Amino acid sequence: MNRPPQSPLVTPAGPSACHWSRFKFPDSLIRYASWISVLVFLTYTVEYLDIPLDRLLGMFGRMGTTLSTRYYPPDIGYTLDVGYLSYVVDTIHMAFLGAIFGLIASIPLAWFGSFNMSPSRRWLYPIARLITMSCRAVHEMIWAILFVAILGFGMLPGVLALTFFCTGFAGKLFAEEIEAIDVGPVEAMRASGANQLQVMAFGVFPQVRVAFTGIAIYTWDVAFRAATVVGFFGAGGMGWYLKRNILQVETERVAAILLSIIILVLISEIASAWARAKVMKMN
Asked: How far apart are CA 9 and CA 19, in angstroms?
């Protein structure tokens, strides 16, 4: 009996089932060498810093004992005092102003710092990137210490510290969103004779409007978290109360202040999530 010839690609397990995958040199060597290097560096770092790993097992027990004997119960009545509540309101104002000023400053920096839309890639682009990177590289606490040393204690150093922080934070995100736009409408507007401002207003902004709104909400959320502690360095707000009670070893009051900060940040997180959900529906 004559049998029809079987295709070489057809096997009992199906077409092209006999496909072997082995080490691919040099990709496999680079991948495994990278993992080994990370493990070696991690081991060396633990040994060099003399981190006692055996003490980590008993850390949580000691932490629970400390919290239960020194920080419990929290003095909730202290956080309901009119003076403390006024500082809570000051913290909200400081976060709001820092976020608003930072967002305003970050918009032109994002425009000049986006490679595809910068009016001058030779001069404005590197300068805008340098300013954004400099604002982001310095921690908001360092900005607070610096401005307190220059301007003295009060809310102004806190607002300036949050402004610089938000400028670097939002400027980078804004610039990345602008660089990811569809350049087709932009090129069409340029071909029709539109200037740079018109291109940004009618060709770029409609594409990044929703993303910008989401970034602005996230910037406010981050600014509020930072505003709760910048006062620890003399920049006003709730952080001043926190520092005073820590120095006075008023542990129950410290626990109440930390609890109030957690509650406020939680409320801000819920409000930010609700606003971001509304913004996503606009897309």
From this structure: 11
